[in-house]
């Protein structure tokens, strides 16, 4: 004994096995919702909970692996749409629609990661926040490079604001499924493009004036 305690076993590095365990977690969360237990995930994979954790280091490691798995897919889809061809309106609409469609199709997983894992685990919250900031930064750079914003600092402000706005509006829409997705997409696209146009021309205050 060294008096320093027992070292935690290093996570196993079997990509195929880790992928199978994450797929088991996906199935349980999609079936049981964001309150799915770690014991249920382990049972789905045919192993004990300690062995499940051993593959990821601990529960935090499992949370972070799930977050990376799903946010990476979502971000890839968003990047593809926003960086594609077509008019600004078409690209903005397509990007927002991709986000809303993806989170709606994976509702339980989205709520597990955003409202449970991020709340329970600081490392997962930090990892997801970093990914969101990366998307915001890329959006800001596109806005500046394409001339939608003539001031780089303002482009970064708007990039982060736009991502936050779409995420918050998406959370609201998930709680109000009676509202057609197209209505949300069109509303957000009009707000984004109208705001960018006004900001680039110094007309922001006009958006709040009676006409």
From TrEMBL:
Q: What is this protein called?
A: HTH-type transcriptional repressor FabR
Q: A GO molecular-function term, please?
A: transcription cis-regulatory region binding
One short Pfam name that applies is TetR_C_32
Question: Which residue ranges does the record assign to the HTH tetR-type domain?
Answer: 15-74
DNA-binding positions are 37-56
Instruction: Note whether Transmembrane occurs among the keywords.
Output: no
The UniProt keywords, alphabetically, are:
DNA-binding
InterPro entries recorded for this chain? DNA-bd_HTH_TetR-type_CS, Homeodomain-like_sf, HTH-type_TetR-like_transc_reg, HTH_TetR, Tet_transcr_reg_TetR-rel_C_sf, TetR_C_32
